[in-house]
Amino acid sequence: MSIEIKVPPVGESITEVVLSRWVKNDGDAVEMDEVIAELESDKATFELTAEQAGTLRIVAAEGDTLAIGAVVCNIEEGGVAPAAKAEEAPKAAVAEDKVAAPVAVAKSGDSYATGTPSPSAGKILAEKDVDAAAVKGTGVDGRITKEDALKAEKAAPKKAAAPAAPVVAAVAGARGERRQKMSPLRKTVAKRLVAVKNETAMLTTFNEVNMKPIMDLRSKYKDQFKEKYGVGLGFMSFFTKAVCEAAKDFPAVNARIDGEEVVYNDFVDVSIAVSAPKGLVVPIIRNAESMTLAQIEKTVIELATKARDSKLTIEEMTGGTFTITNGGVFGSMMSTPIINSPQSAILGMHNIIERPIAEKGEVVIRPMMYLALSYDHRIIDGRESVGFLVRVKQLLEDPARLLLGI
């Protein structure tokens, strides 16, 4: 008995997927619930499993775009069937001897039409690009002789020499190029980024934060923190808590536009931008405002690991009220992040650089980070955007306020 394995429903808004990779080969024996292929949508990658044990018979090829419900493969019940012998294509019979078409040869007594060149004359006229119609024949019945062709050659105007082709300078080194089809995830990201730029009134405001207080706090308690909670104390938990606290004072930053209404949230679902092998994904820390630093760190590690392994589900990437992106891990010093629609704001973190700053009337060296807040000016005013970023800066430079909630 053979059963068809079809593309399963993977989300309400998803109508098609791409067969990105076959894990098993055609003719392989598969077990019940064994992963046989990977399907990729515009949001995530999914595993396709065998619905019974048997022999795999592949229907769709890698790279095919398949609608939900389309047949991907068949599984035949029982052991692996012996491979069928490939039939040789019949060879076309080729005749060994070919009969050449007879060539008509003019004899010395044959008649020619007026103006027809003799074979030798025709050859000369053809080589010299002289039109036979322009040559007057002196032979029998007006036939063009060799002498007529030679005379016509001398009378024919000489053609201007063709201009020499420009010499292209040789370039040292390889100059190859390759084309690669965009993945569904990359195409969706591209469309959404262009849509955000065209449909929002996006502006960016900047500030800088002295990271020394947080770095001192981490150095002092990192060993005890890891021993107690089993995770390291990173920067992301501090930034997440700072955003949640600042959103209480500036709720528009955590809101969104829905038609002609503004939707304000009494919770903060923080989207964390993560660079995955197949593109940028934004898994979500739900209700981050009620989580401790340790809970945030554990969630960040879990989501980042799933993103790298392409194991994130649609639910883990759907929603979010505010986004944090960290270009500093790649060495970015300053950037203007693009809003993650339908959200209204995104905070960009950057690399930490020791720079001289003025502190209590003295020039000192401090580890400084630039912050960038991109926001939708349709819902967030300049006062709110600047105030929000200043509040985040204050909380990060005095992390005790994060722990005390003041």
Share of β-strand residues: 15-25%
Number of strands: 19
Count up the domains: 2
Radius of gyration, whole Å: 38 Å
Describe the structure in your own words.
There is one protein chain. The longest helix is centred in the middle third of the chain and has 18 residues, at 212-229. 26% of the residues lie in helices and 24% in strands. The chain is elongated, with a radius of gyration of 38 Å. The strands form 5 sheets. Strands 9, 12, 15, 16, 17, 18 and 19 form a 7-stranded mixed β-sheet that branches. A 4-stranded antiparallel β-sheet has the order 1-8-6-3, with no helix packed on it. The chain has a 4-stranded antiparallel β-sheet with strand order 5-4-2-7, with no helix packed on it. It starts with a strand and ends with a helix. A hairpin with a 2-residue loop joins strand 18 and strand 19. Helix 1 runs parallel beside helix 2 (146-155). With 406 residues, the chain is an alpha+beta fold. It folds into 2 domains: 2-76, OB fold (Dihydrolipoamide Acetyltransferase, E2P), CATH 2.40.50.100; 185-404, Chloramphenicol acetyltransferase-like domain (Chloramphenicol Acetyltransferase), CATH 3.30.559. It contains 8 helices and 19 strands.
